[in-house]
Amino acid sequence: MRSTANRLFHRRALGAALLLLAGATVPASAGVTSPPLSSGPARNVILLIGDGMGDSEITLARNYTVGAAGRLNMDRFPMTGSYTTYSVDKDGKPDYVTDSAASATGWATGHKTVNGRISKTPGTDRPMPTILELAQKNGLATGNVTTAELTDATPAALVSHVSDRACQGPADMKDCPDDTQARGGLGSIAEQSVQHDVDVLLGGGRRRFDQIVTEGRGRGRTVTEQARGRGHRMVTNARELAVAQPGRPVLGLFAPEAIPVEWTGLSAAQGGTAPQRCVTSNPARPVGTPSLEDMTRKAIQLLERPKSAKKGFFLQVEGASIDKMNHDADPCGQIGETAAFDRAVKVARQYAAEHPDTLVVTTADHGHSSQIVPLAARPAGLSSTLVTDEGGLMKVSYGTHAGDEGQEHSGVQVRIAAQGPQAHRVIGFTDQTELFITIRTALALR
Question: Among 264, 284, 315, 336, which residue's Cα sits nearest to residue 146?
């Protein structure tokens, strides 16, 4: 529970924001008008997570796509702050660099945990209720969208409880023996995702759902077959997604693993690369693969219900491969995924402009490795030089890990921005776990 001082701070913050922004709108060039500020409840919440999208990643995408003086959609929120992202060890002491499992657990449950764990306590390894589970119990429609596998850490934190993020499918349970159904556990992340009957699940990871369940009631069937048995509609491409209708849960699996990225280019190298332009069409991305923008728009459409049937919705949208391309020191892949995420942000903001009872929040789970450095710099690690859309040269450096395993996260605080009811709660300096409180307060969840 917040202290009296904290509650007072947020009342004053809202008051100050109302005075500063009364009557203000986003400039016409943004294309989306911010709705009026409100301290009342929200009917809907759209939470957009740029995985590994720290300030450097945002700045890289801005410089490359709209210019140093330009503005991305995510730059145009009326309320902006930053939050800390550290995880903890089993004794509750800070671990200064989080992974995606612990960070997603932070906003999903309001509590910190150890790296690698999904929505379970750090010491006793017990399940903690998630914001999506609370939304379901309160009668809201729910959705979970990602460009990663649906069983990856960020989407998994909303719909599952496992001791280790690696326990994604029935065949992947060796690190979670006590989570197996044979020992009375809830099963793998894929199994739990289906058992929750989330209204909309869209992403990659078909290989996890095609694994055969070996324990419990669904033994002998794949997770996909279990989903069909529970009434889920299966979609596998953009055409099938476009014609999906509300009324029963939709499970979209658009790739065997993570959805292929949109852009390609030369990865950073020791000593740098020649100046390059990014290739904005990836030949490895199959025709018919929906974009994050497409998935976000369709998810909102599916989650909208008559007020008599549902009380609103909670939707999480993750741009996952900003992180994955950072690990690979691939600046073009990374920038392309940030740009794709930004288009999903635009979809959410457009919806909120027409539905001012919608809280939209965009943030990251943690910082990452990319840095913009002077052209004359000689980075100790990997680097690449890009030719931006405005014709400038920009050098990107990666140097958080010298091994072959890829670049590492950073422990830096990251941006959080919002519009709509309770948006003032992100102002200033907070912690990742407080996002859970913001969403729960906005939706008045019991």
Answer: 315
User: What is the SS3 string spanning 173-234?
Assistant: CCCCHHHCHHHCCCCCHHHHHHHCCCCEEEEECHHHHCCECCCCCCCCCEHHHHHHHCCCEE
CA 269 – CA 331 distance, rounded (Å):
11
User: Bridge-partner residues for 269, per DSSP?
Assistant: 383
Q: How far apart are CA 211 and CA 234, in angstroms?
A: 16
Cβ neighbours of residue 147 closer than 8 Å, sequence gap 6 or more = 203, 204, 258, 259, 292, 318, 319, 320, 321, 337, 340
In this structure, which amino acid lies at residue 176? C
Distance separating alpha carbons of residues 56 and 77, to the nearest angstrom = 18
Q: Are 16 and 417 in contact (CB under 8 A)?
A: no
Distance CA 186, CA 205 (A): 19
Q: Where are the domains of the chain?
A: 32-270+280-369+410-443
In tens digits, what is the pLDDT along the chain, a chain of 446 residues? 444 445 444 554 555 444 444 333 333 334 566 655 667 899 999 999 999 999 999 999 999 999 999 999 999 999 999 999 999 999 999 999 999 999 999 999 999 999 999 999 999 999 999 999 999 999 999 999 999 999 999 999 999 999 999 999 999 999 999 999 999 999 999 999 999 999 999 999 999 999 999 988 789 999 999 999 999 999 999 999 999 999 999 999 999 999 999 999 999 999 999 999 999 999 999 999 999 999 999 999 999 975 545 689 999 999 999 999 999 999 999 999 999 999 999 999 999 999 999 999 999 999 999 999 999 999 999 999 999 999 999 999 999 999 889 999 999 999 999 999 999 999 999 999 999 999 999 999 99
Strand partners, 97: none
Nearest Cα residue to 146 out of 336, 339, 320, 287: 320
The pTM of the whole model exceeds 0.85: yes
**Residues acting as catalytic residues:** 100
Q: List for the chain the helix, strand, coil content (%; round to 5).
A: 35, 20, 45
Contact 58, 363 (CB under 8 A): no
CA–CA dist 157, 69 (Å, integer): 36
Which residue's structure tokens are 């009872």? 357
Interatomic CA distance for residues 176 and 185, integer angstroms:
9
- CATH class of segment(s) 32-270+280-369+410-443: alpha beta
